[in-house]
Amino acid sequence: MSLIPMRRRHLVLGAAATLALPHLARAQAYPARPIKYICPWPAGGSTDAVIRAIALSAAKTLGQNIIVENKPGAGGMLGANELVSAAPDGYTLSQLPHGVFRIPHMQKTTFDTLKDFTWIACLTGYTFGLVVPADSPIKSIADLVAYARANPEKFTYGSTGIGTSPHLAVEEFAQRAGIKLTHVPFKGNADNMQAILGGHTMAASDATGWAPHVESGKLRLLATYGSKRTKRWPTVPTLDELGYKTVSDSPFGVCGPKGMDPTVVRTLHDAFKKTLEDPAVLASFDKFDQTVIYMDTEQYTRFARESFAAEKATIERLGMAKPG
């Protein structure tokens, strides 16, 4: 064989390899296109506002747009449902609310909480509270308990859906108080607020989407559900300090489908963790009385396992477990 054909073949192979390198690099780069971040609550609510602030901040670090897609309904489970069938490529993410730890104990779900998700990073948690109209004769939790004892199931309260934290916290309080209330589920904060402001429900249990209405004097805050009183309403007691042993703050952050590349998970974790240093994100937390509750991937995964077991015990105690 002559030297010329061999040399030409080497040149051709070398040129082909050189041309392939940029394509290989592009295929491996993440993120190479916009990312979808599902908010399983309606647009305009407190969770939506916080998630949009987080997404905007993380997008700057990642160098790609993060598109927030609202999928309200089913007690906040529609994001979880979508992650089950999503490709584990890092382009479909979702908030997974605390309901993913308890609803599977209450009814059949399309997902396995402990097997179907990647727990990328926990970022924050809610302040929940119970509000009534400002002109309501119910001026305290003691008034509510007295009314409900005299009028079983007549006191109506709205929440963001069956099995959500605002629902379960009130049910736990009611059980401990020995009263029966009537629950009215909604798709999210915005609908819940419309109902109480319109006089369709007597109270609302929710995250602090009610805050502007409390400050404007339209609603009265009876109690919050945290382990301690809030900075903004230091005179309002917690259900726990009133003796009802009810605490709820529902930490959340960003999750993906199972089977994600650890390198992609790390990239996302680092970008979302960095949002906790962004003044705009922290301002959104302050607006809705949320605090930084950070957990890395390992800690968040462990939290998921522990919460799943704890919620099973709570659901069984409340008598709300699914048959069988």
Write the layout of secondary structure elements.
Layout: H1 3-28, E1 35-39, H2 46-62, E2 66-70, H3 78-85, E3 92-94, H4 99-106, E4 117-125, E5 128-133, H5 141-150, E6 156-159, H6 165-177, E7 182-185, H7 189-197, E8 203-207, H8 211-215, E9 219-224, H9 240-244, E10 252-257, H10 262-274, H11 279-287, E11 291-295, H12 297-317
Parallel strand pairs: 1-2, 1-3, 6-7, 6-8
Antiparallel strand pairs: 4-10, 4-11, 5-8, 5-9
Helix pairs in contact: 2-10, 2-11, 4-12
What does this structure look like?
This protein has twelve helices and eleven strands. Mean pLDDT is 91; it is low at 1-26. The strands form three sheets. A five-stranded mixed sheet has the order 7-6-8-5-9. The longest helix has 26 residues, at 3-28. The protein is globular, with a radius of gyration of 24 Å. With 324 residues, the chain is an alpha/beta fold. Helix 6 (165-177) links the parallel strand 6 and strand 7. It has helices spanning 3-28, 46-62, 78-85, 99-106, 141-150, 165-177, 189-197, 211-215, 240-244, 262-274, 279-287, 297-317; strands at residues 35-39, 66-70, 92-94, 117-125, 128-133, 156-159, 182-185, 203-207, 219-224, 252-257, 291-295. 44% of the residues lie in helices and 18% in strands.
